[in-house]
């Protein structure tokens, strides 16, 4: 199976007919964040089982975001599984951070691609299989950033390090989070 072709969109594609990211709008977000550094935003998602292991996730007023399992995990293979979706969220968060920080620093991005891999042991099969002592969830995640921009590679490397320090999803992956699950 061959890799899909890369499609550049937005300000990365000069002939896409789309407006680039608004630098003044970005500056407004930066100033707003500095005005109230303790602000907390609560994000919401409603997950509804549709059948077998396929779930519709309702976020804001968007079309449902579908998550499923592959046939090897008894799903219908209609969408990414939850672990793949979490890698996609991580990759997208880092990519947004790279793009926004590049714009804020006056760097023009010609192309941006991230490849993510994560290792996890799935033998516990959601707590129904081998439940012997082992880490549950990703034990290792690798992110490869291929970014072409009008700056030296050292500046891109520094940008990557800055972005992973401030990425909400990267930090969710890399530190404990207070979690509560309860029946309603």
From TrEMBL:
SUPFAM superfamilies: OsmC-like. It holds the Pfam family OsmC. Transmembrane segments: none annotated. InterPro entries: KH_dom-like_a/b, OsmC/Ohr_fam, OsmC/Ohr_hydroprdx_reductase, OsmC/Ohrsf. PANTHER family: HYDROPEROXIDE REDUCTASE. This is OsmC family peroxiredoxin.
């Amino acid at each position: 199976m061959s890799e899909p072709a890369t499609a550049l969109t937005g300000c990365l594609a000069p002939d896409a007919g789309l407006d680039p990211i608004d630098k003044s709008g970005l500056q407004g977000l930066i100033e707003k964040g500095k005005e109230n550094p303790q602000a907390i935003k609560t994000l919401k998602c409603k997950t509804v089982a549709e059948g077998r292991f396929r779930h519709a996730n309702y976020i804001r007023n968007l079309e449902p975001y579908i998550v499923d399992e592959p046939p090897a995990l008894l799903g219908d293979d209609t969408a990414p599984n939850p672990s793949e979706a979490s890698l996609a969220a991580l990759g997208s968060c880092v990519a947004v951070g790279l793009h926004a920080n590049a714009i804020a620093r006056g760097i023009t991005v010609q192309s941006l691609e991230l490849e993510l891999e994560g290792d996890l042991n799935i033998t516990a099969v959601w707590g129904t299989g081998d439940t012997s002592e082992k880490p549950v969830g990703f034990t290792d995640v690798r992110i490869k950033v291929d970014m072409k921009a009008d700056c030296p590679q050292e500046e891109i490397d520094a940008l990557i390090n800055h972005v992973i320090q401030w990425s909400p999803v990267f930090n969710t992956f890399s530190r404990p989070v207070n979690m509560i699950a309860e029946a309603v």
